[in-house]
Design a protein that fits this description.
Strand content: 5-15%
Structural class: alpha/beta
Radius of gyration: 23 Å
CATH class of the largest domain: Alpha Beta
Bound molecules: pyridoxal-5'-phosphate
Largest sheet: 7 strands, mixed
Strand order of the largest sheet: 4-10-9-8-7-5-6
Distance between the termini: 43 Å
Number of domains: 2
CATH topology of the largest domain: Aspartate Aminotransferase, domain 2
Helix content: 40-55%
Amino acid sequence: MDLNIPRAFEEARPGAHELYREHVGPMWAKMLRTIGFDRQWVRGKGPYLWDEDGVRYLDFMSGWGVFNFGRAHPAISRALTEVLAADLPNWAAFDTPPLAALLAEELTRGLPGLDRVYFCNSGTEATEAAIKFARVATGKHGMVYLNRAFHGLTTGALAVNGDAAFREGFEPSLPTGVEVDVNDYAGLERAFAAGDIALFIFEPIQGKGVYIPEDDFLRKAEELCRRHGALLVCDEVQTGLGRTGKPFAFEWVEGLQPDIVLISKALSGGYVPVGAMVTRADVHEAMYTSMDQGVRHACTFGMGDLAMAAGLASLRVLDEEDLAGNATRIGGMIREGLEAMMPRFEFMSAVRQRGLMIGIEFGEPRALGLRGAWSTTHRISPDLFAQAIVIPLFDDHRILTQVAGHHMDVVKLLPPLNITEADAEWFLEGFEKTMEALHRFPGPVWELVKRLGKHAVAARI
Ligand SMILES: Cc1ncc(COP(=O)(O)O)c(C=O)c1O
């Protein structure tokens, strides 16, 4: 075979944007070009990406939270190479794969009270599994979820998505869910009182906006689940594996005991898609009640040797390199740096941080000129302001960050957990300069906002 993948990558690169636009996603390609994010990445290593001109970028987005261990971690990469070299049987299908058994043992060891794992290939599949297992285990159907929640985009997961923008256009056919505002204790009681609730699903820190529910609110949800015979489903797809400074973010809430924990993203090691739903034996057994029910819930690609090896190597790296500890240390340093800037920069209104999951919220300033700029920006589009920070961070300081969700003035930081103090300083310096420019009105950042605004009106980005 004359297919040489690195050569194919190189040869396709110059025309890749057009080819992608033609055959994969014209709107996505257009959006990237509009905001100037249409770089051609040629290499990734640790927390860095390199573009075609050899310029190094600091990746504080980690592919939506996949790269807890950075790109191309040598230990994870070696584990995968070993699997390929070993000609393991992989997907024999009528088998009990050893690597899956090992990974399940490791995952359950880290989650006392839970003893079974259902493996799949993505976060949304883990959510789908939770919905089905919870329904069959409780004999109930209703689902309680939180405003701004994100658990994936397949139809079951969409039914517990707390952002109308994602649900719009698909609604009448979705399973029914009841939405509750974060920390609305009375709303939570009402949702359960309606009856027939199979589960309450939550992110211990919400990916959209980096909002952290109160500990007592989650304890209340647990208590209501117990009282009404529902299951507490904790979505750790983004927050798991050290991201928040603990192996799992729900551990910040003392005594909280989920019935189901969902894991994906970082478990892939940044290489092989994987998802896992971890639960109690009795919940699991409600699904598989007899031998002819063995594939009542199943998927072809679950438990692949490469995915399982990536998971095993990832857990080992997390532990051996004390990445949760590093997340606490460097995350604390970034938070302190940001908070020290707040008195100088009126647009900054809050910093929410646990480990290396950080949200920077912006709000209306006091100074008259800046206030005018704020309200004009929001009149044009409620999504525009945060872009005015993410774009200069990228263009001028080579730092990749993201807007934390629809219609919010929040920028999210999700760097790899093994970043150094020097990386944190790179970010803090870039952010400070971006803030200085933003607080100069009129100025170049506001020219950018005006330009983007025109596109927003024309293309509704
Ligand atoms: C908390 C959470 N749950 C579920 C998902 C869905 O994961 P996937 O994109 O792998 O389907 C995501 C994805 O961003 C997520 O952040």
